[in-house]
Design goal:
single chain; alpha/beta; Nucleotidyltransferase, domain 5; 6 helices; globular; 27% helix; 5-stranded mixed beta sheet
Length: 215
C-alpha cells in the first residue's frame, strides 16, 4: 500500500510517501521545511518532489494521511485543503490523524511520555501517552507548566523544557513514518471527516455589530 502523508500543524511543512506492508512502514521519500509562514507555498512542491524522489506518481497512491492538529488555523488549513483536493482528484480516501499521535508514533519510549508542540501565545498543545504510545490524555492547550510526566517529545517540549520540567525526546515535528504508523489501524474502513483540531478560536474573528452612539 502506497501512502502519501501530509502535515502542516507545526512550523514544519511535511510531506512524503511511504509503503505499508502489514504493520511495516517504509519511507520512500520525505520533504520537511521549517517555515511557519510557508505552508501554503511549500506543501504542493514538497509532495511533487517526494513523489519524484520516490520514483512513483501520485496516480499510484492508495491513500492519504493528513495531520489535523492541533495547530494554528492558517497552517492546518493549507495541509488539509491540499489533502482533500488530492483525495478528490485521485479518487482515493484521506485519513485524518491527530498530529500529536503522529509525533508519538515516531518516538521510542520506555515509559509514559508527553508530546508537546508550540501553540504560540506562550501556550502549548499537549497529550499524554503510555509506554506503548497509546494516547491516554488530551489533546489540550494551556500555558506550559509541569504536567506530571518527566519526558516529552515535540518542539514545545524543547522550547519550554524548564517550565514543563521534562527531559526532551525527538522528534520535534511530525514525520511521515509516524503519521502513517498512527493512521494504519484506520485503513480499510471509511475515514472520519478531515476536521481540524484548533482547540481554540482563531485570532481573526468577525466584528460584532457597532454600538449605536447616542448624544
Amino acid at each position: 500500500m502506497l501512502v502519501l502523508a501530509i502535515d502542516t500543524s507545526t512550523p514544519a511543512v511535511t510531506a512524503g510517501l511511504a509503503t505499508l506492508v502489514g504493520a511495516d512502514v517504509s519511507v520512500l521519500a520525505e520533504r520537511v521545511t521549517i517555515n511557519p509562514r510557508a505552508h501554503g507555498e511549500l506543501i504542493t512542491p514538497h509532495i511533487l518532489e517526494a513523489a519524484k524522489e520516490g520514483g512513483v506518481t501520485l496516480r499510484e497512491v492508495d491513500a492519504i494521511v493528513c495531520g489535523v492538529g492541533p495547530g494554528p488555523f492558517t497552517g492546518l488549513r493549507a495541509g488539509m485543503a491540499t489533502a482533500a483536493a488530492l483525495a478528490h482528484g485521485l479518487g482515493i480516501k484521506a485519513y485524518p490523524v491527530c498530529s500529536l499521535d503522529g509525533l508519538a508514533a515516531a518516538t521510542d519510549p520506555t515509559e509514559p511520555f508527553l508530546v508537546v508542540t508550540d501553540a504560540r501565545r506562550r501556550e502549548v498543545y499537549w497529550a499524554a501517552y503510555d509506554a506503548a504510545g497509546t494516547r491516554i490524555d488530551g489533546p489540550h492547550v494551556q500555558a506550559p507548566e509541569p504536567l506530571g510526566l518527566p519526558v516529552a517529545a515535540g518542539d514545545g517540549a524543547r522550547l519550554y523544557a524548564e517550565k514543563l520540567a521534562v527531559r526532551v525526546l525527538e522528534p520535534y515535528y511530525p514525520t511521515v513514518a509516524g503519521l502513517v504508523t498512527a493512521a494504519r489501524g484506520s485503513f480499510g474502513a471509511d475515514p472520519a471527516p478531515l476536521t481540524p483540531l484548533y482547540l481554540r478560536r482563531p485570532d481573526a474573528v468577525e466584528p460584532t455589530a457597532r454600538k449605536r452612539v447616542t448624544v
